[in-house]
Hints:
Radius of gyration: 30 Å
Strand content: 5-15%
Number of strands: 12
Largest sheet: 7 strands, mixed
Structural class: alpha+beta
Helix content: 40-55%
Shape: elongated
Amino acid sequence: MEKRVHFYVSRKNVLTYLMALCLVGSAVTRIAIPCVKGTWDQLEVWSQIVLPVGATLLYVLIALISGKEMFYKTAIPVWLMGIFYAIQPHAILGSNPFLLGMYYICIVFFCALYTAISCGRFRAPWLLPLMFLLPIAAVGYAHNFWATTPQTDWIRQAMLQGLLPNYLLFIGCFLLSLGLKVSADGKYHPTWGDRSDGRKIRTLSPMAQITMYFQWERNICSNLFEEAVEISHIDRYIRQKRREGLTDFGIMHVLLAAYVRGVAKYPQLNRFISGQKVYSRGDDIQYCMVVKKEMTVDSPDTSIKVHLNPRDTAEDVYRKLNAAIDEVKATQELDSSLDGLIQYLNLIPGLFLKFVVWLLKLLDYFGLLPKFLLELSPFHGSLFFTSMGSLGIQPVYHHLYDFGNLPCFGAFGAKRKTLEVQEDGTVIQRKYVDIKFVLDERICDGFYYATFFKYYKRLLRNPEVLDLPPEEVVPDID
């Protein structure tokens, strides 16, 4: 895997705010100062004002809000400004095809080099100040040209005034480039292709990559897995934990803690598919479940999401899960933030709501859903686990969701007793719990799944190992 450096800008640096001041000034002057005498048609307003002003302010917002983690996204407004300069009337260059061709090549080269540097692919941050000095020099040349060219006064004045927004723009970017820093934490930071909830897997085999385009629906690509777990050791372990003060500790906590421990050893289980690409959640195991305030048919229910870590012990899982459940149950109407969002969506007329849902799916496909929506959504996560045992029935194979990216849905049923004949002819009674999983087969191969579930079953036979953190957490990607 290619190693990249991570560049960032800090909001504690005065150069960042000087940049923001210059660029906001550039946007304001670009609106206030008429660059061309006379009235503009609608196309000119969009190309000469809306495009550059929008790109300039977008650059400021990205640098101030996401400059610490996603400075590379400033390449988006840089390309927008490249388009703006490409469609400018070239009063100096005239219609010379050679000069125009070189002009366009310089714009594309500038934007491409900025993109390569900002995302850490090209490790030369010292080039950015030099790059911005060149357009500053070009604006200075244009200033001298119009100051000395024999033209009528109003043309000369208009062209000279029109250079001020460009001066402010490039001076501001130059100042910001001086404040660019290299992250020294040694961690991976997001770059192009990553999502806010996952890191793109770039080392898949060609066959694995192309498969996503032939098998794009999650339910079509799901595998069903069933296992019966003998729970004598688990029952003793649960009684011990309750004696230690974990009064609500139950089989749900054991099964979930064992799954989390399994992900520590087999991290590909924490991958997901979105937009025909495979992503890894890394150490963020997002567990989703449905909560009812009371076990009655008319009691409201809602979904919660708990963030777990591969290093969590059984007690960590217990405390995180119970804290999330208690927070929801403490409300009068059992209304989570998700319920509030859905109430607003239900106010939209059906036809328009269908368009809104389509738009959400489109944004999700390209990884553009806001992070707060991903946090609320029960369709985005690592695992959905439900207890059929609390309902007194055996588990079901619950389908996956085509919307979102949830790759695994598990369910366990009520305890059952069975009589087993031993080799010596004696008959003993054992207690079992049946577990069923529906799995997205595309996140890893069958051998990997099989190895994980054998390890998962060993953990359930010896749940005491869940009291200590794992000796090693295997990273999904180095």
